[in-house]
Amino acid sequence: MSLIKTMLLFSALFLGMSSLVADELGDRLEKIMAVPVDQDYAEYLAEGCSSCHQSEQGTGTPVIEGMAKQRIIISLLLYQNGSRINAAMKSIASSLGDEEIASLAEYFSQMAESE
């Protein structure tokens, strides 16, 4: 088991998920990490995120620029399955497929915070 899957398993168990659900999330994480990313498509998708996820602290919405790719993917997967609770993010995350998640995670992880 990879280090990322192990960390996800511990995080998921901490959130009260079963180890089966955590393992499924780990498998999906690894699958998404392997998806090739089209940078133009990623930039296009990111425009929708930037209206809420500003590059400045204190807005109440997390800054995602420069966040680790795995963290972005895991966050979106947890919103999709209902483990993280925010109605707006659940709706948005639920509409994303693996290619969109991979693209957004790659795009924002490559940005320097406050770029």
Gist?
The protein is an all-alpha fold and 115 residues long. It is 63% helix and 0% strand.
Could you walk me through the main structural features you see in this protein, from its secondary elements to its overall organization?
The protein is 63% helix and 0% strand. It has 115 residues and is mainly alpha-helical. It has one domain: Cytochrome c-like domain (Cytochrome Bc1 Complex, Chain D, domain 2, Orthogonal Bundle). The mean pLDDT is 85.
Architecture blueprint of SSEs:
Elements: H1 3-14, H2 19-33, H3 39-50, H4 69-81, H5 87-94, H6 98-110
Quick tags:
mainly alpha, Cytochrome Bc1 Complex, Chain D, domain 2, 63% helix
H-E order: HHHHHH
Which range does the strand content fall in? under 5%
The geometry reads as globular
User: For the terminal residues, how far apart are their CA atoms?
Assistant: 35 Å
Q: Which structural class do you get from the secondary structure elements?
A: mainly alpha
How many discrete structural domains?
Answer: 1
Summarize the amount of helix as a percent range: 55-70%
Q: Largest sheet, if any?
A: none
Question: What is the CATH C level class, in words?
Answer: Mainly Alpha
Number of strands: 0
Give average pLDDT, whole number. Answer: 85
The tally of helices reads 6
Q: Please name the fourth-level CATH homologous superfamily.
A: Cytochrome c-like domain
